[in-house]
DNA sequence: GCTTTCCCGACTGTTTTCGTCGAGTATAGC
DNA sequence: GCTATACTCGACGAAAACAGTCGGGAAAGC
């Protein structure tokens, strides 16, 4: 199985999204700032998530992303499979053909079994349960005022696409290098 | 967690070794030929396995490798950890410090749990059980004649270190390219 | 028409992985 | 001793995977 930062970031971003989507669509720029993930990278990730129908998008001002279905019906496995394509631990990729003809190699069953275990587990964890965990831990969700347009006075920091403060390693706070 | 061909090869090689070690030490050259794994690569792998005391080595003619302890007391997790060092699915590597100070990130627990599942499973499979599987499937172990020295006549194919027939992808039979 | 926001594909730099090579050491048998 | 067998070690290099960027575009709202 493949488990990379792509999958980790995707899960983190989805939690962020699930926590806040009641106030309407959430923009990637906002997620980028909160979670310190590069905006460009998020775009890539959410492109895949959308194609797998885990999220829905709304364009234009006030737009952003929303969950494609209820958080309780999205599992971690769904998310990871969406962004990290193959979730398979075997060498042959499930085709049982490491050897010439229909003969699986000595260890095929072992990897297949491992695979099943992992998928089963990740499939047993729903996005909702992760969200609940966060709420239980007292994460504060700024209940955005839903103001369509503030009387533009304060020079709001515009989220620019280039170079998020530098997404080194952090997933939610102070960034620090490897 | 890291799961690469290194780990797969190591497990395959260990099965081969376990199947045949009753006839005395097994050479890497022999394993290399049977399993189509490059000899040089096997040397690297077995170096690590030896440092982790999973195998023991005997030098000189007639030498080779033997299991370091009973097959029933070696688990797949042991093997993989030996060659693929960190068996950890979290970003922080267990130190719980994706964020600044002692704060674990939103997903730490998730990855840690996954990790535990995987290790538990791999730890529950012993080398002995894999060997039994193979025997049950009718794998033929050439019960080598234990002849110390044949009356050298037939030009025995000497296993040379250079270029195993080309270890493309196969783990035990006809090789074929990716 | 202007801004916001998503959308897409191609691209590049780094890291990891896979596998090789060369030189060396211990042991056994003659 | 000499030689052949085998393991031992470290450095090296090509190739693939990964992480992240960039530029241009298209819908939506005002
Ligand atoms: S891993 Fe599936 S046949 Fe070898
Ligand atoms: S993964 Fe451990 S703190 Fe983030």
Describe this structure in words.
- The structure is a homodimer of 178-residue chains.
- By secondary structure, the first copy, chain A, is mostly helical.
- Chain A has a domain at 5-85 and 126-149: Arc Repressor Mutant, subunit A (Orthogonal Bundle).
- Chain A is 40% helix and 4% strand.
- In chain A, strand 1 (55-58) and strand 2 (64-67) form a beta hairpin.
- In chain A, helix 1 (5-20) packs across helix 2 and helix 1 (5-20) crosses helix 3 (39-51).
- Chains A and B meet through helix 1, helix 5 and helix 6 of A and helix 1, helix 5 and helix 6 of B.
- The structure holds a DNA duplex (30 and 30 nucleotides).
Feature tags:
homodimer, 6 helices, binds FE2/S2 (inorganic) cluster, DNA-binding
Topology of this structure?
2 copies of one chain form a homodimer.
Chain A lengths: L4 H16 L7 H8 L3 H13 L3 E4 L5 E4 L8 H8 L24 H17 L2 H10 L42
Antiparallel strand pairs in A: 1-2
Helix pairs in contact in A: 1-2, 1-3, 1-4, 1-6
The structure holds a DNA duplex (30 and 30 nucleotides).
Written as H for each helix and E for each strand, in order along the chain, the element string of chain A is HHHEEHHH
Low-pLDDT parts of chain A are 145-156, 163-178
User: For the terminal residues of chain A, how far apart are their CA atoms?
Assistant: 24 Å
CATH class designation of the domain at 5-85 and 126-149 in chain A: Mainly Alpha
**CATH superfamily assignment of the domain at 5-85 and 126-149 in chain A?**
Winged helix-like DNA-binding domain superfamily/Winged helix DNA-binding domain
Name the strands of the widest sheet of chain A in spatial order.
Answer: 1-2
Portion in beta strands of chain A: under 5%
Question: What radius of gyration of chain A results from the CA coordinates?
Answer: 19 Å
CATH topology of the domain at 5-85 and 126-149 in chain A: Arc Repressor Mutant, subunit A
The assigned CATH architecture of the domain at 5-85 and 126-149 in chain A is: Orthogonal Bundle
Annotation, overall tally of beta strands of chain A: 2
Mean pLDDT of chain A: 77
| Biggest chain pair interface | A-B, 39 and 38 residues
The computed structural class of chain A is: mainly alpha
